[in-house]
Known about the structure:
By secondary structure, the chain is of the alpha/beta class. The strands form 7 sheets. The chain has a 9-stranded mixed beta sheet with strand order 14-13-15-16-23-22-21-18-19, covered by helices on one side. Strands 24, 25, 26, 27, 28, 29, 30, 31 and 32 form a 9-stranded parallel beta sheet that branches. Strands 2, 3, 4, 5, 7, 8, 10 and 11 form an 8-stranded antiparallel beta sheet that branches. Helix 5 packs across helix 11 and helix 14 (591-612) runs parallel beside helix 15 (629-637). The protein is globular.
Amino acid sequence: MSKRWGVIVLAILFSWLFVNITRNTIQAQASSLVFTSRITSGNDDIRLHGNTSSTTATDVSAGKTSNNGFRKSGMRYQNVIIPQGATIISADLTFTSTDSQAGTAANTKIMGEAIDNAPSFQNISYTTFNSLPRTSSKVTWKPIPAWTAGNTYSSPDISAIIQEIVNRPGWQSGNSLSLFWEHYDWSLVAGNVRNAYSFEGNQSLSPLLTIVYQTDSPLPTPTPTSIPTPTDTPTPTPTITPTPVITSTPTQTPTPIPSPSVTPTPGSDLTDVIELYNSSKTQSDSGFEKVTRFYGLKRKDINLATTALDNTILKDEAGNYVPIVYIDGANLSYLDATEQQILKNVIDTERVNLVVTALRLNNNQTINTLTNGEITGSSSFSTGTKNYTMTNILPAVTREFTGITVTDSTTQQDYKLNISPTAVNTHVLITSSGGGVDNPIFASYKAQNGNIFVVSNYADNFLKWNLLNENYVPKWFSQLVPMMMAVRYSSGDKAWHNDHNYANLTIDDPALKILYGFDYPGILQQAISHNFHFTLGMKAGSYDEAEQSVVDLFLQNPGKLSVAVHGNNHDGYEFYKYTTSGSDPYPARPLADQEADIVEAISRFNMLRQTTGLNYSPIMIFPYNISPTETLRLLKKYNFQSTINSVDVPLETTASRAWDVYMYPMELDYGNFAVRKRHAAGDGECIKCIFDLFIDKSTFLYTHASFFTGNPLGITRFNSQADAINSLTGGVEWNSLDYIMKHLFLYKTNDDNSIDVMFFGNDIIVTNDTGSDRTYHLRREETLNVPIQSVTIDNIPVNYTISENWFSVDTIIPAGSSRELKIVYETEN
């Protein structure tokens, strides 16, 4: 038996003994467990002020306002896994403050909803909220001292409230519970409110419920991990035997639980968006239609010239109001007084959001009426270059662009919004500088339940003619991005999205050695101090130069250091054109030679893994730059996940003219293989990175060793850019290219509560964090230019279908669980 197998067996034996000893210890006494949860849906928190209620507010709050109004809030927590009658040891709520609140003190109380299984707060009015049954147990939280923006604050112990709820005869583990945070003291001095992030404000900072409890119910008996019978592994020799398959790192895991069989019966796709127009479509209409299509939303068009607007029109096929109504500003005048009132009523009473673009009419009466006189129209302002600054007021809308300024040297053509100086419900989201003044061009008016988003952009015909990505640039920023912000916010989980922002820094070329190599201890220290991940793009030919001290750094710090494939020998433009002419600067590289290089690179990296235990990401970073398209098909054949380069159009290939090309996390238009562009690392802010992250593309940065050695800042040079990226709203997760590819997909919730997943590589890991078991429809564009050998979920073979060039697998993923889907392509000719 090899030494490595011996270590694995000892580790498994220790784990088995630990599990059994722990199991016996736990079953000999009551189990002390911890349950934690944040708000997981927009309808699961509600804020009330005066006689109004809102499930879309960006904060939850309680206390007495400066105008002697009172704030109260409700928070619902789903899938509370606590048995009926369990003993609650302690419980509390932790809030994250949205702003600095310097009032002398706030007096509040917390209660629970006295119900077995609390429903959401959808369509709950102020009056209905006050009539909801309260627990007899309540906890006063007073006085609450001043809060500082961004800090967390925990409530007093609320275990009595939780105990009362779980003691109810109808309570079952997995039910939902609601808690109410309300004002307490009517005589309190005005101006003492405490505001904390809600789901809409920042889901990751929404109120955190923590419950410590005990139960006499025994824990499930764990199944001991089976111990495999290892076979002897011969000591590797320097002789290279090409192995044309990328193999995964050998690990010992329990036999996976197969995914339940699924016969999906999805409900019909319901309308998400109503577009109002008049006779013919405008340039803004064309841009809006591309945006809604990009986000996967179903749109219904209403011609105001032939159809009178009524409540029925604003509903979907199931009779529910749609979340988004859109109209070009030029068409507002076609809404008569009755239609204006209908639209205003549904925005006030329902969770309907109106999106108005290209508002360019001074003192427009319709927008004045809809916003109760707060936005009165738009007008021109002094010209200047385009200089768009996002405010910090509603980060749930402006997302990664929050607090960022986007500039372009071309002359601005937009209008400024005319906002009443007495406006209290209108928030300016984007300004454009001109004449020394920051002029509002994008604002949100907060109605009782819905919002009205208004942008006063100039609309160019390019919105109609361009591909979507051609307008998704600083030059056309005001014409497209504010519209995307409003649609993304209003559609929520029904739009294609990914809740995680991923980033990676790759340094090409160095070998795994310090001498004449690279300062690996130094870059590791910076990655730890400034929270980024460094990937070495290593040529396969240097696999036998690896120094053990450097390898150990990578093995001991997989969250900060990783390796990816940077060609084979890196002998010039290694994957250049197959045939060349006299004008070509590099020699030809026939396809057969390129395939041999790919096979040898895989063998060399597998040898590195066998001799050192160091794994690598099956991502190809081509030396010099990208290859021709047929080479990409070879990468697919040999089960690489993707290629990432500074150019994303293959050699001798015409760039795709698909309307949505380059707008998704990966591009599959070339050889049906995942292609992405990366950006050169620099100093400070990275605007291109923000454009990537806003549409959930992840962002990839690269450089060479000279970036650090040729600068006075040395190995610390990337720190400022890492800090700038980490400071973006929504947060950024740095990881290896392999990890990112396995989690780089888009998903959206369907009307039947199933979830569509659009992925791009051959290996993905999907986690169900919705709080309930869900059916997932996993889909990928698939041309079958390489035959499929096998498809598995958690190593269990599954059936799949391919229809109209779409690969599809359906699976049920239990709440809180993950599933790994792998497609293995045939490597034989």
